[in-house]
Write a structure and sequence with these properties.
762 residues; alpha/beta; Rossmann fold; 5-stranded parallel β-sheet; 5-stranded mixed β-sheet; 19 strands; elongated
């Protein structure tokens, strides 16, 4: 196999040895070419950063061949993005393409940072000394230089970039400067780079649309989209002219092309950066690049590219082109460049040798440490420090506090959530509530009614109808220290944008070792059992996709007082520990009033005090003195199980009911404690039998812990929720719970016999 890396290195050496040299040397401050914005000194520094990036790519392959390196997707051919790193500020948030090595080195140079080569090598070798991700993944990142780690830039990071750009302007209008992002000034811009193939990704198109939409509605959107166009996506060519024709005429988006020698790329990049900074509007920088050596080290280009195509690409190597321009312009001599190349190659390899043997993360605890921090005492202290006094609350709620409410309509779950949102917006000036129809309308179910009137349109506002954009905005706001509370109008709509939680928001802390977080509380009206308003788009009983996301906390209230406490706990988790929390709100319980009979008011609750919270691990227990069977459930399952418990009681079976409240992390300790006091356990899981996982997880943990008494579950069917009465055929019902207990306890129908048979306590 021909060594294309060696060919590229030889081509650079040959260019330095053979290219024409100017007769007169330029002074360091002189323009590289007539009228260019790049000086001779800046051009030489840029070449050094390009060269260092290239040598790191070469050494990455050498380390992989030795079995001590783990990443070979290189920046080779993309080194002209060095201009972006040099021309933007270390306080301009950057969310970068994985071929951005020269950018990162140039930004480090501008910031006066040391040891950047060492840091990149630690990342390539996945050592625990990697200052960005501590060896969890190879990422470009720096908290000090505002490079936010991205793990896969196929466009999924771009909605977050839009959100970050919008957040800069919104934060300024609100006059809030949270400490977490105080180093991002009001005139900062956001840089987001991606490849030409990623332009076709739904997330990229969403981001372009939402940036233009926000700008059209009057919001500042200081965002520089940077498409590094190398003409190919792994093995699939991008049609010639595709990028330009796709975006050049889009209203509300300025298109700037950058191609050719370093001075031309520099000038075009400078013009794009200046336009974004001055006009606070989105710009699309189309940067022409090439891809050398295949997609990654394991990619065999000759399988899909001809030799002539590969050689034509190599002839456009930006490193060779820059070296020739430096010599022709008189910015450097042959000796200077030759010595520079030799020194950089030597220094990078010497540093790599020194790092061999650096340890890696070795335990699950080390790996997962930044994934889901939970410090209950710190959370409670934070809440105490933000105590709301009665006078302030009365001004917000009117003369009567929610604790003083007596009308049934003011004591429902919906009313309690609305009151709690009022309090949290009072408590936290950095908190924002947004989504589809949450502003003037107050939400489809009235959950946000009155919030915009009380707190203004900058803090409570409507978004465009796109879930990916909503969650992207939330991430950007969170990155800049705000506390977003986005609403996804229905749980089923979340699936359009799930990767914004799974691949982006919940991975931020993990891949930055906690240096960056995207805190938020995502409100998700959902679950089933709505009457007169159904179908699977509005009755979605699938939470398996949420429970699959590492680090995501999921809470599901059943009663109004719990809903208020859980919302407060979720807000404290997001504010204090940077957590992403999903608050799944059971729509069918929003306005419920009764439990057993019409008019009994059994589901109405008094509002808890403003500082009362519920945190992970804290469960709800009903009928604690009953010990024949433990019914474990949540959400709509709670009233169902309470009604079933009354029917079981009529048969002489005492049923204790446990409301999980938290579906991630599941409160296994509390379940085990109550299970130990009961003769059997039945899990009543209202979600799909094999797609929710709550019943699976509870039963599995009890079995693993050696719980020797009868255990079972009842669940809804694996089906979409149909419209109308047909829903009753597939959803969990009260009779299923009663029958499940009967099957679990055997023919006698009592748990006492079951306990005796299992050797449990009398």
């Amino acid at each position: 196999m021909v060594d294309r890396v060696a060919i590229a290195e030889a081509a650079l050496d040959a260019a330095i040895a053979e290219a024409p040299v100017a007769a007169v040397r330029l002074s360091p401050a002189a323009a590289l070419t007539t009228g260019a914005r790049c000086s001779a000194a800046e051009a030489v520094a840029a070449f050094e950063d390009q060269l260092t990036s290239r040598v790191l790519d070469v050494v990455a392959r050498e380390l992989r061949a030795e079995g001590v390196g783990y990443y070979t997707i290189s920046s080779a051919g993309h080194e002209d993005d060095v201009a972006l790193g040099a021309l933007t500020r270390p306080t301009d948030p950057a969310l970068l393409h994985y071929r951005s090595g020269a950018f990162v080195l140039a930004r480090a140079r501008r910031a006066g940072a040391q040891h950047q080569v060492r840091d990149v090598l630690h990342s390539l070798m996945a050592t625990r000394e990697d200052p960005v991700a501590e060896g969890r993944h190879k990422v470009w990142g720096s908290r000090e230089r505002w490079v936010v780690p991205q793990t896969s830039t196929i466009g999924s990071h771009l909605p977050k970039a839009v959100g970050t750009a919008v957040a800069i302007g919104r934060r300024r209008r609100l006059g809030v400067l949270p400490p977490a992002a105080a180093d991002v000034p009001g005139d900062a811009i956001v840089v987001a780079s991606f490849g030409d193939a990623s332009l076709n990704h739904a997330s990229t198109l969403t981001a372009l649309n939402s940036a233009r939409w926000a700008h059209r509605t009057g919001a500042p959107v200081p965002l520089l989209f940077v498409c590094e166009d190398n003409g190919i996506g792994i093995s699939t060519p991008t049609p010639r002219g595709w990028v330009a024709s796709s975006v050049r005429e889009l209203p509300g988006l300025t298109y700037v092309a950058a191609a050719g020698e370093l001075d031309r790329v520099w000038d075009a990049t400078a013009a794009a950066v200046d336009r974004v900074r001055d006009r606070r509007a989105p710009v699309f920088l189309h940067l022409e690049t090439v891809r050398l050596w295949g997609h990654a080290g394991s990619d065999v280009e000759v399988a899909y590219r001809t030799r002539e195509d590969i050689e034509t690409t190599e002839a456009r190597d930006p490193l060779v082109r820059t070296a020739r321009q430096l010599l022709a312009a008189g910015a450097a001599t042959r000796q200077q460049l030759g010595e520079l190349v030799a020194r950089v190659r030597r220094d990078v390899r010497t540093t790599a040798a020194e790092l061999r043997g650096t340890p890696h993360l070795a335990t699950a605890e080390e790996v997962t440490a930044p994934l889901a921090p939970h410090r209950p005492e710190r959370l409670r202290a934070e809440l105490a420090a933000r105590h709301l006094d009665e006078r302030t609350r009365r001004r917000a709620h009117g003369r009567r506090l929610p604790e003083e409410a007596t009308a049934a309509s003011e004591r429902t779950l919906a009313a309690h959530l609305n009151a709690a949102l009022h309090d949290e917006l009072l408590r936290r000036p950095e908190a924002l509530v947004f989504g589809q129809d949450v502003g003037a309308k107050g939400g489809v179910y009235g959950l946000t009614a009155g919030l915009q009137r009380q707190f203004g349109g900058q803090r409570v506002f409507d978004t465009l109808l796109d879930e990916t954009s909503i969650l992207g905005l939330a991430q950007g706001l969170g990155l800049l220290g705000m506390l977003p509370v986005p609403e996804i109008q229905y749980l089923s709509y979340l699936h359009n944008a799930l990767d914004q939680l799974r691949g982006e928001a919940c991975s931020t802390s993990f891949f930055s070792a906690g240096a960056f977080t995207t805190p938020m509380v995502v409100r998700l009206p959902g679950l089933a059992y709505q009457r007169g308003f159904g179908g699977h788009f509005h009755n979605d009983d699938s939470i398996g996709a949420l429970r699959d996301i590492p680090g995501l906390a999921i809470t599901v209230p059943s009663t109004g007082d719990d809903a208020a406490r859980l919302l407060r706990g979720a807000m404290a988790m997001a504010a204090t520990d940077g957590r992403v929390v999903a608050l799944v709100e059971p729509i069918a319980l929003y306005h419920r009033r009764d439990l057993h009979e019409p008019g009994d008011g059994g589901w109405l609750r008094d509002h808890p005090g403003p500082d009362e919270v519920l945190l992970p691990g804290e469960v709800g227990v009903y009928h604690p003195g009953c010990d024949d069977v433990l019914l474990v459930t949540y959400a709509n399952g709670l009233p169902m199980c309470l009604r079933a418990a009354r029917r079981l009681g009529e048969r002489g079976i005492g049923a204790r009911v446990l409301d999980l409240r938290w579906l991630a992390p599941l409160p296994h300790t509390a379940v085990a404690e109550h299970a130990a006091a009961c003769g059997a356990v039945l899990v009543a899981d209202e979600c799909r039998a094999t797609a929710g996982g709550v019943a699976d997880a509870v039963v599995a943990r009890l079995a693993e812990d050696g719980y020797g008494r009868p255990v079972g579950s009842v669940r809804s069917h694996d089906s979409y929720v149909p419209l109308g009465p047909a829903a009753d055929a597939v959803l969990l019902g009260e009779h299923d719970v009663v029958d499940g207990v009967g099957r679990l306890l055997g023919a006698e129908g009592t748990a006492r016999g079951a306990r005796g048979a299992s050797g449990g306590p009398e």
